[in-house]
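Deliverable D2.4 — example input (structure tokens):
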């Protein structure tokens, strides 16, 4: 996974790099493909913002969080991405669970109510 970071009105420190790498590693367990993750950290009106954008061929996720502390903002943004991933996974599982419940026990009687003359497309 390719990770890029950008800072605006902030000093880029090793501690911030470590925090972003830690948070990215936490998110990597959800994304098994070769997507790109972009981090933007900035200060606006005294609030510290952390923004994550993840892009892959099959999905996109975006989260933005702010607080008084940048480290807390990063944690909040990661939580938002995790919620989006869980919601999409639950929706996917629910959709596939419904289609797999259809079982035809007697194929001969399955078409007894079918009338070809009524089904004209």
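Example output (designed residues):
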């Amino acid at each position: 996974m390719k990770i890029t970071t950008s800072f605006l009105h902030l000093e880029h420190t090793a501690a911030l790099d470590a925090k972003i790498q830690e948070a990215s590693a936490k998110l990597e367990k959800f994304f098994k493909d070769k997507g790109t993750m972009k981090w933007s950290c900035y200060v606006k009106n005294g609030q510290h913002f952390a923004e994550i954008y993840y892009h892959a061929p099959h999905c996109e996720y975006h989260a933005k969080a702010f607080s008084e502390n940048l480290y807390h903002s990063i944690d909040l943004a990661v939580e938002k991405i995790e919620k989006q991933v869980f919601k999409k996974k639950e929706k996917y599982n629910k959709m596939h669970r419904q289609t797999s419940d259809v079982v035809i026990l007697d194929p001969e009687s399955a078409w007894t109510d079918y009338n070809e003359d009524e089904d004209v497309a």
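Residues 2-101 form a domain with the Double Stranded RNA Binding Domain fold (CATH 3.30.160.100).
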